[in-house]
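User: quick one, sequence for these tokens?
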């Protein structure tokens, strides 16, 4: 029994000597598992704190904005350098890319690709304004247009009138209606009417003789107004005392006959010389006076005169 105990003790000591070497291995695996479990558990509850080398969302946005501004400035420099190099005849130098983190680098790469796709081909394209300059130019143009509209509204009707071009329309020559005629002997013939009087007038070249029904003018018309009415067309046209006038008149009274003779003389003068139409028309010598005697009505003594009224 005593011999067996030392052997068992020696075996236990050997096992105990080997156990310390095994325990660290288990502890390391457990530690690794614990760390993974501990790292996974906080991620479920709250977002893990960013590492020192990894960028946050705010820093990434700021870096993207900074890189966009830097790329815009770089594009402007590249455009100016390319314009200068094209003017001199040398090849344009590409812009150097600035180092940045992964999101900044991606934004810079996309902006550089866009800038490379929009690189100018000629000097005119290189000198083309950017989007900001174009926006400023459009804003200035709109402001100028609004100012011009305001000025035009304020000054509406105050300036000098616009010059209108007057186009002359050729007047169509209207051929006058000549009611007289000239016979084969060169004698102008005209017929005039007034009320119930009818006058047949003949005009020929002469010394100013004026005969009415075989009597001279002074003998036929005793009133000066009637004589002046007969001589008016001759005096208006300048033929007074240069032609002989022969008249045959019948019907009506002296007033109607004087008017009929004047109209007949005017129509005969127009037939003799058509150029006198304007003068005779302006003077009213070619107008036929349409006033006639009103007819009598039954029950009345005349056209309007009624018998004396008697109440009883």
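Assistant:
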């Amino acid at each position: 029994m005593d011999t067996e105990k030392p052997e068992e003790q020696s075996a236990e000591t050997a096992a105990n000597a080997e156990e310390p070497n095994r325990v660290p291995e288990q502890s390391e695996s457990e530690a690794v598992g614990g760390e993974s479990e501990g790292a996974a558990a906080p991620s479920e509850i709250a977002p893990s704190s960013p590492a020192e080398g990894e960028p946050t969302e705010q820093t990434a946005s700021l870096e993207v904005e900074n890189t966009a501004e830097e790329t815009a400035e770089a594009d402007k420099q590249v455009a100016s350098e390319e314009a200068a190099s094209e003017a001199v005849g040398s090849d344009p130098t590409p812009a150097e890319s600035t180092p940045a983190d992964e999101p900044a680098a991606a934004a810079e790469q996309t902006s550089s690709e866009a800038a490379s796709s929009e690189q100018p081909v000629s000097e005119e394209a290189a000198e083309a304004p950017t989007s900001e300059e174009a926006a400023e130019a459009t804003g200035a143009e709109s402001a100028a247009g609004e100012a011009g509209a305001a000025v035009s509204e304020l000054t509406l009707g105050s300036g000098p009138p616009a010059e209108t071009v007057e186009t002359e329309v050729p007047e169509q020559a209207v051929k006058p209606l000549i009611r007289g005629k000239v016979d084969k002997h060169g004698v102008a013939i005209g017929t005039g009417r007034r009320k119930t009087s009818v006058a047949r007038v003949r005009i020929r070249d002469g010394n100013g003789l004026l005969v009415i029904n075989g009597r001279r003018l002074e003998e036929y018309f005793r009133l000066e107004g009637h004589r002046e009415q007969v001589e008016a067309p001759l005096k208006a046209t300048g033929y007074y005392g240069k032609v002989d006038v022969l008249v045959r008149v019948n019907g009506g009274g002296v007033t109607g006959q004087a008017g009929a003779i004047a109209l007949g003389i005017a129509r005969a003068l127009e037939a003799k010389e058509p150029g006198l139409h304007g003068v005779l028309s302006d003077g009213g010598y070619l107008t036929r006076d349409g006033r006639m005697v009103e007819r009598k009505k039954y029950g009345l003594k005349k056209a309007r005169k009624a018998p004396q009224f008697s109440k009883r």
